[in-house]
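Weekly structure sync, notes
Attendees: PL (lead), two postdocs, one rotation student
Agenda item 3: pending single-chain targets
PL asked that the sequence for the first pending target be pasted directly into the notes so everyone works from the same version. It is reproduced below exactly as submitted, 225 residues in total.
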Amino acid sequence: MPQKFQGLPREMIALRASREIKDGDYVNLGIGIPTLVSNWIEGKDVTLQSEIGMTKTGPLAFDDDVDQDLINASCQPVTELPGIAYFDIFDSFGMIRGGYMDVIMMGALQVNGRGDYAGWANPAARGMDIGNIGGSMDLCAGATKLFITMMHTDPDGGPKVVNEITFPYTTKGKVNMIFTDLAVIEITPEGPVLKEVFPGLTPEDIQSVTGAKLIIAPDLKEIEL
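Predicted structure, written out during the meeting:
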């Protein structure tokens, strides 16, 4: 039975990933944990773009703020920020395919140490052997930086940071950083570098639930929120 470790909740993975977003960045948030990043941009001059045709989307909306015409990639209602603009999907994908997005954040089923990732279909799961790749390939191809936010292991405790991708690819060689509940990993030409770990865990703990061989950063530290 694979070992399981207690790590960050999904909201805190999003918080840690949000620290890599800089003032002035144009950012697109994919389905799942990435959408939670919108709750952590307050105080930053950041433009969130939704591929349905919005820029300057804000945090997730609740209660009286909900407008089902204003949604993110996960079909969750979002709020509007000053300067919000609306446009059709052709203009939206012109921005995405034209390389105007500074940061793309995506969820993933598998990532390897070379920056390849799979995120749209899981042939190993019943009912998940088909899927809709949507705009994820376009987003990855046009990204200046591609960040992955996900749980470190699958529901059975198996690694999601793998040596070799076995699911249908979304992109190859584009991932820059991986943020999980247990670790922060940077993809480098030398391989995946373990930069931060959940408090109380060791590099050996992280490696035990990681398929790819990790390089330990000389300045390894605990995850900083």
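Discussion points:
- The first helix runs from residue 10 to 18.
- The chain is about 15% helix and 30% strand.
Action: rotation student to compare against the earlier draft before next sync.
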